[in-house]
Design a protein that fits this description.
Blueprint: H1 2-24, H2 27-42, H3 50-54, E1 59-67, E2 70-78, E3 85-91, H4 101-112, E4 115-120, H5 123-126, H6 134-146, E5 151-161, H7 162-172, E6 183-187, H8 193-202, E7 204-207, E8 210-213, H9 218-228, H10 237-244, H11 257-267, H12 274-279, H13 283-291, E9 304-310, H14 319-327, E10 334-339, E11 342-343, E12 346-347, H15 353-374
Helix pairs in contact: 1-2, 2-4, 2-15, 6-7, 10-11
């Protein structure tokens, strides 16, 4: 029995070695191996990290580039050695700084896989502010990265996570760069800000034609609070804050007419009423919500679209990526991957090993598709 097992292990090891050698000999095979290595890097508890063993350390440089009448900064991660590479502008979501441990880890792994990564500074996102003006920052970063001598301008994409992904999607629809963005990678992003606001207030989402309970995290509530309250009269703000925080279920006395409209929306739990209540919001609020929504100009999107979303996301409903997929009819191509491996956009641990293996295989296919276009 031991002899048979030993021979089987030797044959298995030989087959793995043959597959590796064959993989190294083809572009698709090399990308497949790099994708596997990159996937391991995503999860911080792996016993070994092949990319670190087989590739040189990337370099990280802080760069300055023009933005409007001034300039801004970003970190650029370059693969070791010389050569021209595909590249990604990487916009992180709300809150984390560009040198957050997860951001650095993923950026370095992508660079080891052969992709130049540029992580711009976003003061607004760092302050939990989602604004349409972010589009200018994304366009400026794309223009800068595309012009670098170590970057192939035909292989430059944009990647964003959470709300950062939605804002880069708005920029990718901009006619200044729409025809030059090789791909758009969005992870846990929203398609329509009004639809997310509806989900946050009614605490349910529409899934396959049925209404399903959805309990939002505090983050989207805090973001909408920070967006909407400054647009109301100063006297409304302390009155409405307890409604955003869930500390009362009564409409406060003394609100302005606009403040009362916001209060009615916050207290509503009826999905049938929500669209009318959102449509009744002050014009400047509605303009902000549409200005930060990729859905507004989705027909202008030309890039190949890759969508990744965890189905248990409590910050942005996974149905937003489904709507994005359905709306992006003019994209060069489109891909949607739904998984169960993350808490919003951060890796989660534990669970049934078979389920984890299945979900990891789906994530691997997604990563392979993205790298194949850039490496």
């Amino acid at each position: 029995m031991r002899g048979c097992l030993g021979r089987a292990l030797k044959v298995g090891a030989l087959l793995v070695l043959v597959l590796v050698l064959l993989g190294i000999g083809t572009h698709g095979g090399r990308v497949a191996l790099k994708s596997a290595g990159l996937l391991v890097e995503v999860f911080p508890t792996a016993p070994v990290y092949p990319l670190r063993l087989l590739t040189g350390a990337p370099t990280r440089t802080e760069v300055r580039y023009p933005l409007g009448e001034g300039e801004t900064v970003a970190d650029v991660y370059r693969p070791a050695g010389e050569g021209v590479h595909g590249a990604l502008v990487f916009y992180i979501g709300i809150g984390p700084e560009r040198r957050n441990v997860h951001v650095v880890r993923l950026s370095e792994a992508l660079a080891r896989a052969g992709v130049v990564v540029m992580v711009p500074v976003s003061p607004e996102l760092s302050r939990f502010r989602v604004v349409p003006e972010e589009r200018e920052g994304v366009v400026a970063a794309f223009e800068y990265l595309s012009s670098r001598p170590y970057v192939d301008p035909e292989r430059v994409g944009i990647m964003g996570v959470s709300a950062g992904g939605s804002l880069v999607a708005v920029a990718a629809e901009d006619p200044r760069i729409a025809d030059r963005v090789r791909l758009l990678e969005l992870f846990g992003s929203y398609y329509s800000a009004p639809e997310v606001l509806e989900a946050v207030t009614v605490k349910s989402i529409q899934v396959d034609g049925r209404r399903q309970e959805w309990q939002p995290d505090d983050v989207p509530i805090e973001v909408f609070q920070g967006m909407l309250l400054p647009m109301l009269p100063e006297g409304d703000r302390p009155l409405l804050a307890p409604l955003f925080e869930g500390k009362t279920t009564d409409i406060p006395e003394g609100l302005s007419p606009d403040g009362r409209r916001v209060a009615e929306l916050l207290l509503n739990r009826d999905p049938e009423r929500a669209p009318r209540l959102i449509a009744a919001l002050p014009a400047r609020m509605r303009e902000l919500l549409t200005g930060i929504s990729p859905a507004t100009r989705i027909k202008e999107l030309r890039a190949e679209l890759f969508l990744l979303h965890d189905v248990d996301d409590a910050i942005i409903p996974f149905t937003e990526s489904r709507a994005f997929y359905e709306g992006a009819v003019n994209a060069h191509d489109r891909h949607l991957t739904e998984i169960k491996l993350f808490r919003h956009v951060e890796p989660s641990a534990g669970g049934n090993p078979l389920v984890l293996a299945r979900e990891a295989a789906k994530l691997y296919g997604h990563v392979y598709g993205v790298l194949l276009r850039l490496v």
